[in-house]
Amino acid sequence: MNVSKLVLPVACAFAIPAFAQEDDIAIEAIENSGFTFLGVENMRLDVGGDFNEEIQSYWTALTLPLFFDGEQALFIEGQFTWHDPLDEQANIGLVYRRWCDVLDGIVGFNAFYDFGYSRHGNGFDGLGLGAEVLKERCEFRFNYYLPQQKQPVIGSSTMSGEAPTGRSMESRRSSSSTSTTVSNFVIPDVGTFRRTTVTTRRDTFVRDDVEFERLIQTILAKEAAMEGLDVEFGHQLVFLEDCCNLWLFGGYYDFNNPFGGDLNGFQGRLECRLNPHLTLDVAYFTDERLVIGENWYFGIRGSIPLPENGNLLAAIFDRSPTPQGNRWFQRVGRDRRHHMTETAMEKIESELFDRTMSNRFTNISSTSTVEEIGE
What we know:
Elements lengths: L3 H15 L5 H9 L10 E9 L4 E13 L3 E13 L3 E13 L4 E13 L5 E12 L3 E10 L5 E35 L3 E35 L1 E10 L9 E11 L6 E13 L2 E8 L10 E11 L5 H6 L22 E35 L1
């Protein structure tokens, strides 16, 4: 999928208006045009994507404020994500933020319900808990992810074989029968003779019950979502603030693989906040399994304010810097996708059974006597 399909429209929608030159006629037209969004202040719609050579993710998020008095805020945040070529993910959470005089910044807590499909079509629920600190020039966030603990089978292969165990039981049975045959014959010029033949037949039956063991080997392929956490700390690069609003983030992640081989390492991210409506970032992870096939991604996201009464376009064209107070409702920084793992495990079952092997041995013997009975 071509990255430019999303990058170019988003860049045009947010970068061009933010850097446009002011025009009295245009601004007057913008201010006179109005929309109403549920009569709620500080609503915002965020769209964006993350890309590398292996995977493309596209997402859209909506922030719905419930309460704000200047000292604390409560809002709902929902997001839907498309991962190409993997799964789809939906998240909805409740976020609480409060001003803290001690830290001279905003302290927040959040709880999210996460749901997503794996590439094999299995659905996984999950709970996410997080905490954050948002200051003017630095940020800190911690997130914990607890997905549904299940391991559905995604494939299987079965093989079986038989072999004698060496145990057997032999039994023999014999029977015999005797028959007599009498016949007369004449030898010319000699006389008449009688032949008596006695035939004995002896049958011996041998039955051997041999014990066999049947081994059934089943290879099961399973998948599971990993429980884990991540932490991130970022600081604005103040020596560049005259030319751009650049932030440098570093962090650590640790996810428990129930099949063995945990996923953990360090991460780094460079974020450029071009204006209040457009942000670019690039991230690097020490373990490529976290991002599917690559250990980096490039991201772009745009934010569309949804004002209570009109001025939608005016808000988009607003080029004023984002003050600390406007960060009350910024999007929560957390991972939106279940991290999946797969494995193949061996299952061996055995059963014993008897196989009967029968043979018959026959011995036939006969004796004949001849006597003369006349001339």
